[in-house]
Please model this.
Amino acid sequence: MEITRKAEYAITALLDLALLPEGEFTLSKEIARRQGIPSNFLPQIMATLSRKGWVEATRGAGGGVRLSVDPATISLQAVIEVIEGPIAINKCLVGAGICQNQSACPLHNVWSRAQAAMLQVLGETTVADLVTSKKVLLEIIEKEKQ
Model:
């Protein structure tokens, strides 16, 4: 299993929106520019995030996109699953009935524990946590410049 660029771009776009002053709109092309996201990817990603209710889009003068929920309510696991579907390090862990060899497979328990650990980290980490980390990094960079 690999977390795709599309999921990474979705997380990065949400982080960008969360860094803006609350309620402020921005253009998708500005998010793409600031975050180095290919602009052809972003409309589809933003539409998905909007359907989920995390992003509000408004047309016209002063329009754009903005975060519509508290970033502390958006886990990385939720973003990845909205963009990619269920997270599984091996397809035998996707759902019931897929693994025909579960009882005899010596790896199944290992995959299951590894996946549980990964999902715990992704489920506990929110966009708000990334905002805090980003602000700390920016402060360190600013202090080093002085």
